[in-house]
Batch of 3 targets.
Target 1
Amino acid sequence: MALDAGVMSVTLEFAKDLKDSDWFGKQDPYCIIRVGGQTFRTRTAVDGGRNPVWNETFRFNIINENSVDVEIKDEDVGKDDVIGTATFSLAKARESGTDRIQAGVVSKKSRKQRGFLSIALSWEPNKALKSGGAHAAAAPMPQQHYQQAPPAMVYAAAPAPAYYAMAPPPPPAAYYAAPPPAAAYYPAAAYPAAPMAYPPQPYPAGAVPVQGHW
């Protein structure tokens, strides 16, 4: 019996016990999910290591597609390494409306199962999609739900600072040079004028004047 067309909501919840592709630190896994020609990418679970959590929902237009391919990669500087791949069916969800799956993750190198991917499916029939043919199936729904993403923070713009007119500074004080002190004039000492010549002194009695000195 042909299944009805509709919209499949695929929620990639988490992965467990993945192969660790990093030698140092923890790997940063993300998923690329493909249904027919529709492809989506999850956010990167930074430091998710072997047990990353995404909890992201993607909506796919489904007509004849009945399987989903998921590639898990480790985000690195340069080239992203492939951790593993998983494939699961949409048949049960299209019949019953919902389904929960633990899809085994196969390592790229060893081709052995290394952990699993937890998925939740929800189906919404939509017969209108069938009339659109292949074009409806190729157009992905733009709506994506990031359940773990924190709500956007709204920051109110800070009010413009109030600028107040500042009073002009007072004029600089006028400084005048002090006048020099008055010169001190002292009166000249009153000394008697020195005599220009001394009168000859009398010789004592009995003294004979020396020749040439008189």
Target 2
Amino acid sequence: MILVDTHCHIHRWGNGEVAASPAYTKRGNNVRNPTRMASGGNDFDNSTADQYIHPLYCLMAVEEADWSGLLAISGRDRKEKKPLLQDVSQDTKEVVAVGLGIHPWKTQSVKSGWEGRLKEALERDPTLIVGEIGLDKAGESGKKSWEEQRKIFELQMKLAAELRRPVSVHCVRAYGIVYEWLKGRSAAELPPSVAFHSYTGSLDMAGAFLRLEHLQGSVFFGFSAAVCLRYPAAEAKLRQVLPILPKESLLLESDLDDREAVPGAMNTICDVVAEVKGMERNVLAEVTTKNAERFLRRALR
């Protein structure tokens, strides 16, 4: 059985050849560690994790310092281009897809000319997607950087639309703002597909995104144990939202830095989503793998 992790940051661990991003080295795993899951003590379930193969890790940058390392890890800085997805029916241990972008937490530290460098990197490799980008109003950092966040988010969304690249969106307490931005644009002004990673929005907001005229069939919702099961309230929201979401819109992810924790995290979120949707685990795995392929392959069309 195959599971696809459509949003993670395991590049922080390096691969013996490429150093981890300084930002992620500092970040650590204090709230992403499986032993510190939700206040109820729910750890990631590794009991059957060995049944799963993860042919695709989609590695997401958070700042420009990540970009060169990610390109080196993926091999996409070479002349020979790898396919974005290998045949997922094959027993493949890992296929890497890469997103480049500026995370909302990092908008205050961007260097002049970043947007030109991002566009140049994306133009060199049509398999790259745009991510992790977004808006985050939580905490003092969000308040201090809000205007810069919006400016940088909109620039990256416009670039993704221009170059026809999928986007992976981080959104905290700003779903209504993102919705209005998407709603106010034509199909040509929007990216070909949008994934809300580790979705924590409301039931009503999810329905509104699904009804957007110019993104029909192109809006995806990612769910992770690290975020969506982190607290009882987060899990309650997941259980409220999931029943209305079409199975064709679902993605699974770890949102982890720690490579070793990924199998258990993916196993856990697969179990919970399958339970809520009333699906067999192997069926959900097949559906979300196809969804990941649909989301990511749009960059090649």
Target 3
Amino acid sequence: MLPSSIQISGEPLSGAEVRDICRGLRDNAVRLLSLRGCRLCDRDFGRICRALAGATSLAQLNLNLGVVSSPSRIKQLAEALRTNRSIQSLFLHGSPLTDAGLALLNPALALHPALVALDLGDCMLGDEAINLICGLLPPDGAKSGRGRTGGSMETQESRLGQAEEAWASLMALDLYGGGLKELTLSANPGITPKGWSRLAIAVAHSSQVRVLNLDYNPLGDHVAGMLAVAVASSRTLEVLDLEGTGLTNQSAQTLLDMVENYPTALRSLVLAENSISPELQQQICDLLSEGEEEEEVAGGAGDTQEWERGREPAAHQRGSSSWMCPSDPSSQMVLMTSGLGDSLLAETEM
């Protein structure tokens, strides 16, 4: 029997439903589990976490919109992730994690051998969380398990066990490629320009990240300039979402110069809901379109081979799999991405 999907949204979960979910996870019959906005007691949440710890078929876990609502649940999820080895996409959008909660999750995230997509949008994060997230985007693509503050998250008592687990995880990283390929940090206004500058440096040197969603953060032109440098330096970043981030024509001109003068992997740049003229948006869109066409002609069979190996950004979790490159309303371009989450969802629904 092929693994299927369980998708429940915004409903209270009964004891029978929780039992069915746990049974499916233990039987490795679930590939996609989405409990977006569901309401359940702490005891049932713990039962699900214990079941997903040993699940080997589960590839996508969606706990968006407040399911992980307390420090105790964060600890239970972290413990499950320390054991699980199959989850590739983890969505926690709209969870009140805060920096302290992410610090509890970070060791498990850093050691997970398969995780490539992480959604931490609207999670009340600040600069301390950015330090930890940068540890998931190291230059060699192998996650470090440390923040950028110089101190380890591991305690002295468990260091030997952690080292053994890290070795096993690093062996698995050789198989899975290691490091995040999609990162979503939408709507975290507590992050300061200092935090965003650290993230820009990490993205510039990351050998993995392909999709970066920073929409609805008060970035402004200064941070956008740093991100332009990061994009110009990155060999892999294909999608950058800057919708509603307080940008002006100054940012757009910098981004236009970057796209026009430096060869990058960038294919989609979302600039909607900013104070940017339609003309500048259209110029950027046209240049990205030209670059993609040239890559398709030059790449030929090699590009097809690369996508067949699974080189694809994960799904955008905020309502659409379409990436719109803003332009004049009469001439708008839509770029489609076949993300990890989208492909899993399509496969399980079929």
